[in-house]
Amino acid sequence: MMGEIQRQALGPVNVAALLRLRASRLTTGNKTFMIFEGRAWTFRQTYAMARRYGQLFADRSKGGQLKVGIYQDNTPDYVFAVLGAAYSGTVVFGLNTGFRGATLRGVVEESGIELILAAANTLAEVEAAGLSGVEILVDPELPVARGRANLRPDSRAPYLVIFTSGTTGLP
After folding, report:
1. By the 8 A CB rule, do 11 and 149 touch?
2. Residue 96 in contact with residue 164, Cβ under 8 Å?
3. Which pTM value belongs to this model?
4. Which of 24, 66, 120, 154 could form a Cys-Cys staple with 61, CB 3.0–4.6 A?
5. What per-residue string of b and e applies to 134-146 under the rule 16 or more CB within 10 Å gives b?
6. pLDDT one-digit tens code per residue, 106-136
7. Pick from 77, 80, 79, 66: which is nearest to 151 by CA?
């Protein structure tokens, strides 16, 4: 259980705060956070990448909560982007890569997505959906995080919405 002093030092406790705490500790910062296809990332490395995605999102936010769709396979960048959303106050929509054409367009329009992170292998489907007013990035060049003063998420705001095809149909 986290003590009151720790809660006060962290500020609002959310995923971003917990990752920051683990990354900053000598005992956990260099421990493995995740392993993907034989490559490992520590808490500290993951936090650094999350901050860079958070900065990317903060730089594109127009004052409100930016809505970002991720249309790519489950990769470390997917994880970093989701954690970056928690860090920047962005809401990320995990889009099922089985959504195509009008279905993908409808989900993007309904959710108000302003930016889509695609991968080289999913870009053609995103372009074929005929989206208008949506920025599309593939392997974006990530900015250096410039501190956390401009990245102050509301700990009660959603940061991840997952759209699956499921058995109940579209969302």
Report:
1. no
2. yes
3. 0.84
4. 66
5. bebeeebebeebe
6. 999 999 999 999 999 999 999 999 999 999 9
7. 66
